[in-house]
Each structure stands twice: as structure tokens, then as C-alpha cells.
Amino acid sequence: MPEMPEVEALGRFLEERLAGRAVARVYPVSVAALKTFEPPLTALEGRAFDGVARHGKFLALRADGLYLVMHLARAGWVRWSERLPTAPPRPGKGPLALRVRLAAPDGAGFDVTEAGTQKHLAVYVVTDPRDVPGIARLGPDPLAEDFTRAAFAGMLAGERRQIKGVLRDQGVLAGIGNAYSDEILHAARMSPFKLAATLSEDEVTLLYTAVRATLGEAVERARGLAPADLKEGKRSGLRVHGRTGEPCPVCGDTIREVSFSDSALQYCPTCQTGGKPLADRRLSRLLK
């Protein structure tokens, strides 16, 4: 799943290539992906792109007062091409959800795709990104200058959920998903099942520092990478997520996994849980 660092890099890549270029045609290949109907997609045609912004995991492409907003969900992506196929795409069961062809040079543009059978990709055309419900409810950006340690502590106060779930809650912090929450907790040497409200002052400081450092480093690693290289670039920088059975790069212990119905987390017992493995079941507690 693309998270904040990958979406940030993708936005910068598109901004460099879209600035000042007008939309010739927009092809809505997957009607299910389109979540708004007014303004229509065709309202983008003839308008020139003049900015790209990221809101959490959302990407907003501005074109003369309208915004093409995308949430790539778990398996969505944007594929840039200097020469798109000349024939209009046909709706079908393939991964293509949306095609945007630019006016000049002829043939350039991008496809928005989604792999797999579960379709959660979302596309919006709005006059204000805040009209998108998912953006309207976003918490602060963890790399913003005004995201202070004091603000973070205030978010955690009284929060009775496990810290893993709090970090992934887009209404608390914008842009962190399953992978980077694992990485942040490993860097902070903290169990994913620890209750947020029980964190000591020192633990809050450690976690705040880990959030900023982990995401900041990931953004820098992704900087300048082409979209086709971002997914592998993300994976290569991960220490624990997706590395079940491998040695922890810090202590050498075996990285373990807890599986849920639709996802899994990875952690290091020595670094994060005092050497105790977590029971591999939903809402598990430390094995005694």
C-alpha cells in the first residue's frame, strides 16, 4: 500500500511533468472508482494543471480551479507514459481505472490502475480538496512544522487503543499505514499492542522522535525515484515490515508476525516486547 512517503514522491514526480500542460481527454474506465459526479470528469478537459498537493495518502492534482483527487488504497498506482495508446481504453476487468491524456505533446499522460480483485481505489473531481470526506477528517501531517511533541502527547492522552491502531488512524495522524507504523514502533522499541494512554513521558518522546525520523528518512529515500521504482524503494528501506523470519537488523532476533483477517504486522521480540512473542490472533495479549 502506498503511504505518505511514496505518495509525496509520486506527487513531486507528477508536478514536474504536469505543470502548465492541459488535459485533452479523460477516460473513466472504472465507474466504480469515481466517487463524485458533479463536476463531471469531462470538466477537466481543456484545463491546465497548475499544482499538485498531498493530503495524507490522498493526491490532489489542481487544474484551473478544479482538483482531480485520488486515493490509491491498497493496490492502486499511477503509471506515467510519454506515449499512451492511441485507441480509447475499453471498460473491462483489467487494472486500468482512469486514463488522462494531455494535449501536448500528443500522446503523453498517465493511467491510474488498481491490481487485484478488491477494488478500493477512489477518484474525485472537486472544487476544494476538503470536499472529499477522507481529507476533511484527516489529522495533522506528522512532518508538518507545527506537529510538535506537545501536540502529539495531547493526541495520545486518554487514548485507550493499542498504539499500532492509533498510528494508523488517519483521523489522528495523516499518512501512516501498516508498513510505516511497524517501522516506527520498531525504531521506538515499543510493542504494537501497548495502550497509547499508558505511555510514559519518555516513551511519548521516543515515539514522537521515531515518527518524525522514520517518515523523514523514507521521504528522502523516495525523492527522485520514478513511480515504477517507488514500491521497491519502499521495501528496500523497511527493517521489519514484510520481513517475517528474517533477522532483526538491530539485534539479530527473528522477526515475527501477527496475522489478522486482512493484514499482518511484523515486530522484533527482543527490541519491542522484552523477548516475549505476541500471540498470533486478533486482539492478542503477550503470552505469559
From TrEMBL:
Residues 2-93 form the Formamidopyrimidine-DNA glycosylase catalytic domain. SUPFAM superfamilies: Glucocorticoid receptor-like (DNA-binding domain) (SSF57716), N-terminal domain of MutM-like DNA repair proteins (SSF81624), S13-like H2TH domain (SSF46946). GO terms for molecular function: 8-oxo-7,8-dihydroguanine DNA N-glycosylase activity; damaged DNA binding; DNA-(apurinic or apyrimidinic site) endonuclease activity; lyase activity; zinc ion binding. It holds the Pfam family zf-FPG_IleRS. Keywords: DNA damage, DNA repair, DNA-binding, Glycosidase, Hydrolase, Lyase, Metal-binding, Multifunctional enzyme, Zinc, Zinc-finger. CDD domains: BaFpgNei_N_1 (cd08973). It catalyses: Hydrolysis of DNA containing ring-opened 7-methylguanine residues, releasing 2,6-diamino-4-hydroxy-5-(N-methyl)formamidopyrimidine. Its cofactor is Zn(2+). The keyword Repressor does not apply. The keyword Plastid does not apply. Residues 239-273 form the FPG-type domain. InterPro entries: FPG_cat (IPR012319), FPG_N (IPR035937), H2TH_FPG (IPR015886), Ribosomal_uS13-like_H2TH (IPR010979), Znf_DNA_glyclase/AP_lyase (IPR000214), Znf_FPG/IleRS (IPR010663). GO terms for biological process: base-excision repair. Belongs to the FPG family. This is DNA lyase. It comes from Streptomyces lydicus.
